[in-house]
Amino acid sequence: MFFCPQQVFDVLLAGHGAGGKDKSLFPGIELMPSPLGNEIRDKHGDNHRENSTSEEKEKKTFHLWREHNPNRCRPPAGIGEGIFHDLFDHRVEFLFTWGVMIIVLRPHTPKAAVDEVVAEVEKLGYEPSPIFGATQTVIAAIGDERTHQNLESLTALPQVESVLRVQKRYKLASRESHPADTVVDVDGVKIGGGHFALMAGPCSVESEEQLLSTARAVKAAGATILRGGAYKPRTSPYEFQGLGKEGLRLLDLARKETGLKIITEVLSERDVEHVAAAADILQIGARNAQNFQLLIECAKSGKPVLLKRGMSEKIEEWLLGAEYILAHGNPNVLLCERGIRTFETYTRNTLDLAAVAVAKKESHLPVIVDPSQGCGRADLVLALCCGAVALKADGLLVEVHPNPAEAMSDGQQQVDFSSFQELAKMIRPFLEVTGRAG
């Protein structure tokens, strides 16, 4: 959870439990007026609409607000001006670089056992703040988890009942730290924040004729981005692995002829540089969703990155994958739901449309849906596209082939040109009713 200053003062300065401020960590101190926290949070949101990941810029927003609103940033009653501003500065630093964990002790834990946990928290580099209740004690531990170990190991102590996170682990990807929708600009094609993108093309780049005919057809139907795999991760080593660098050359040729932007998958760290030279968006597939070194290298390329959800990945793990890219200085991340592996065998995967709604709620990043991988059946793709658009997905990634029966990979899930034209028409009413621009 992201804390605005009001919430920080509520937790660290206000009363805990019955008795109000008499039970406070700092008795006699009154809370700052609630509009203060709200206004600072609004300023923080405005600042982030530029998709900045700079901590220093974010901190300056707070300090500039304080300088321009001196009457709204007075010390609470009972605390001196100097101490208040030192505390304010300390908490601003906390907002952007520190985290909070709550250690819940078992009921009726004796004082000596509480002191033992406090000592362990300090030893691990955190600042402990015990909060004593009538029957139970909790300890708020404040510190920078990027440089200190996680406190969840404290559950090994017999007097510790649980250790709870207050902040989300995916801080940069969280909507609480960035309320406004991120808009990813792919060389003029905007995705997110009310901008919808239709991406389409073959599963694999097979030949110049196949790719160029598909590019012309999907552009005519309304697509703005051409998908196509030059490198293909296949379960069997004997299946078609893609054309490699020749496939990248053909994708570049299609871009020059049609003006479509290019998205293609990168499989390994050694391929990032030359794939980035040919692609407008780097795609990280489900098998590589937690290949963290690959995520870091793709982030360093500076190109927008589409991160597919791993086939067995929880939503939190998916967002933490995006966090890797954001934490390495690349704000242009697209999340892609492509189906998860379940016990169901009727479809190749189970497209988790609920995850689209969750990702839109939890994160500010654009969410794309791949219905082709999501079900593995061409006859279901159109219906799933309508469902995804109705859920306000920011884009679709659809596999299209001139003759799916002759495709060298995954022909059963690729739609032909006429089906794609029908698909593009079917989603228009959903785009209109949800107020998106295609």
What is shown here, in short?
With 438 residues, the chain is of the alpha/beta class. Helix content is 39%, strand content 15%.
Kindly provide the name of the CATH class of the largest domain: Alpha Beta
How much β-strand is present in the residues?
Answer: 15-25%
Number of helices: 15
How do the strands line up in the largest sheet? 7-8-9-10-11-12-13-14
The total beta strand count reads: 14
Structural class: alpha/beta
Question: How much helix, percentage-wise, in residues?
Answer: 25-40%
Folded structure, characterized:
The protein is of the alpha/beta class and 438 residues long. It has three domains: 1-97; 98-167, Alpha-Beta Plaits (2-Layer Sandwich), CATH 3.30.70.1140; 184-433, TIM Barrel. It contains 15 helices and 14 strands. The protein has helices at 5-13, 34-48, 55-68, 81-97, 111-123, 208-221, 245-258, 272-278, 292-301, 315-327, 353-362, 371-375, 378-390, 417-426, 428-433; strands at residues 99-105, 127-132, 137-143, 160-165, 184-186, 189-191, 197-201, 225-227, 261-265, 281-284, 305-308, 333-337, 367-369, 395-399. Strands 7-8-9-10-11-12-13-14 form an eight-stranded parallel β-barrel, surrounded by seven helices. Strands 2-3-1-4 form a four-stranded antiparallel sheet. Strand 12, helix 11 (353-362) and strand 13 form a beta-alpha-beta unit. The radius of gyration is 26 Å and the shape is elongated. Residues 1-55 and 72-97 have low confidence and may be disordered.
